[in-house]
Design a protein that fits this description.
The chain has 10 helices and 19 strands. The protein has helices at 6-14, 42-55, 87-107, 125-140, 150-156, 184-197, 242-247, 311-324, 373-386, 400-403; strands spanning 35-38, 60-63, 79-80, 118-122, 146-148, 172-176, 180-181, 201-203, 208-213, 219-224, 227-230, 234-236, 256-265, 275-278, 283-287, 293-299, 333-343, 350-353, 359-363. By secondary structure, the protein is of the alpha/beta class. Helix 2 packs parallel to helix 6 and helix 3 packs across helix 9 (373-386). Strand 9 (208-213) and strand 10 form a beta hairpin. It is 29% helix and 22% strand. The longest helix has 21 residues, at 87-107. It has an 8-stranded mixed beta sheet with strand order 5-6-4-14-15-16-13-17. Strands 8-2-1-12-19-18 form a 6-stranded mixed beta sheet. It starts with 5 loop residues before the first helix and ends in a 14-residue tail after the last helix. It is globular, with a radius of gyration of 21 Å.
């Protein structure tokens, strides 16, 4: 792999940047692989990378029905945090956050991870009590989180409106300083490049249309739009389409898929220093490196596999943003989009082997998939390679829904779903 560095940049500048190598090979499918990952987003590419790097599997294929980064990885609002309530969730998301902190160095690719802090606003007594409960629970788990008064929240984020004449006045906020954002495209490209360098075949425009099983129920391979591929291990990391792919193996998943909308403004000079989230009025915002205000909304109320949403959801979100940040009322929105989020009954993910031998699944992340990318990929690779879960993802199994061992994180998601 061609390494990126300041020296390499100067060297290639002298030749007019004409000799950079492609970031990854345009691989042609082979007849058979030791493992196949279905889904070329951050989770799938990351799992392939860790399988090759840490578990010695090199004959791996990542199958993506579209293009790398064209799914939820390229359609989210890039927020990273680990301030979840329950012990199991805090361990999972903080594992991811710790990996985020060294990811650029690990894969030799700048993912633009910025620990600018995430501010979660409280607008009523219930919010205040809930967030303080989160803070105490987080501290017991070694996760940073602190309570700010309205004046302290305003000092941390100067554009914030803390006047008392709002529909939902700001009564305080929970702040995780280690949290922040990263560049979503760079995460996908960085993992793709690093996995390719270890021999992983990344195959785009390759839709899986069937999963095959032998007489004993073990997976034997997949049918794709580019031919048949044999394998004894399949890892499905297909986000909102996970239930469709798993249905090909005869499994009905406890998932519902909803559109989740986001939008960005025209670019402006740096003015917004952090991420601000409001659970009560279902809006959250940060500023991108290009200067755009990146705004997220709640999920639409209907299930769908489309990458779009209803206009009234965006309108409701912008009303809230204009009230929270009146300085931005005259700004124009450039574009909006939707992603497909897969939601479990307890709003926590599934990272597990399935009842089908050789079939593994990483799904159910709802609105929290991007923030967990390196941690989810790392744990999914462990589970696929060893045939058993890591201690961190062991609670996030399929059996919990039958046993009633739910991890109900609906309140921690900070958006309505």
């Amino acid at each position: 792999m061609q390494r990126f560095s300041a020296f390499a940049l100067v060297k290639h500048a002298l030749s007019g940047h004409q000799h950079w190598q492609p970031q990854w090979r345009d691989a042609t499918p082979k007849p058979a692989y030791d493992a196949v990952i279905v889904g070329g987003g951050g989770h799938g590419l990351g799992a392939a990378y860790y399988l090759a790097k840490e578990h010695g599997l090199r004959n791996i294929a990542v199958l993506e029905k579209g293009w790398i980064g064209g799914g939820n990885t390229g359609r989210n609002t890039t927020i990273i945090r680990s301030n979840y309530l329950f012990d199991e969730s805090a361990a999972l998301y903080d594992h991811a956050l710790k990996l985020w902190e060294g990811l650029s160095q690990d894969i030799n690719y700048n993912v633009m991870f910025s620990q600018r802090g995430v501010l979660m606003l409280a607008h009523n007594v219930h919010d205040e009590q809930s967030f303080k409960r989160h803070i105490h629970a987080n501290r017991l788990n070694g996760v940073d989180n602190e309570w700010l008064t309205p004046a302290q929240a305003k000092e941390f984020c100067p554009p914030l409106n803390i006047s008392g004449n709002m529909r939902h006045p700001v009564l305080g906020a929970a702040l995780q300083r280690r949290a922040g954002t990263a560049r979503h495209d760079a995460v996908a490209w960085g993992y793709a490049r690093a996995a390719d360098a270890l021999g992983v075949d990344i195959i785009q425009n390759c839709e899986v249309t069937a999963i095959h099983r032998d007489a004993f129920g073990h997976v034997t391979g997949v049918t794709t739009s580019r031919g048949e591929i044999a394998t004894r291990k399949i890892g499905v990391s297909a986000a909102g389409n996970s239930s469709v792919v798993m249905g090909m193996a005869g499994l009905r998943m406890p998932l519902e898929s909803f559109p989740l909308q986001a939008l960005v403004s025209e670019p402006i000079k740096p003015i917004f220093p952090c991420v601000v989230m409001s659970n009560t009025i279902h809006a959250y915002m940060s500023q991108s490196d290009k200067g755009e205000l990146v705004i997220g909304a709640g999920t639409d109320a209907y299930t769908s596999y489309t990458q779009r949403g209803a206009l009234h959801i965006s309108a409701h979100t912008l009303e809230a943003i204009c009230e929270l940040f009146p300085d931005f009322r005259r700004m124009r929105m450039l574009r909006n989009w939707g992603g497909i989020v897969d939601v479990t009954p307890d709003r926590s993910p599934i990272i597990a082997k399935t009842p089908v031998p050789g079939l593994y699944v990483n799904c159910g992340w709802g609105t929290g998939g991007f923030k967990a990318t390196p941690g989810a990929a790392h744990l999914f690779a462990w589970t696929i390679a060893r045939g058993e879960p890591h201690t961190i993802n062991a609670p996030f199994n399929l059996e919990r829904f039958a046993r009633g061992m739910l991890i109900d994180e609906a309140a921690a998601a900070a958006v309505a779903h």
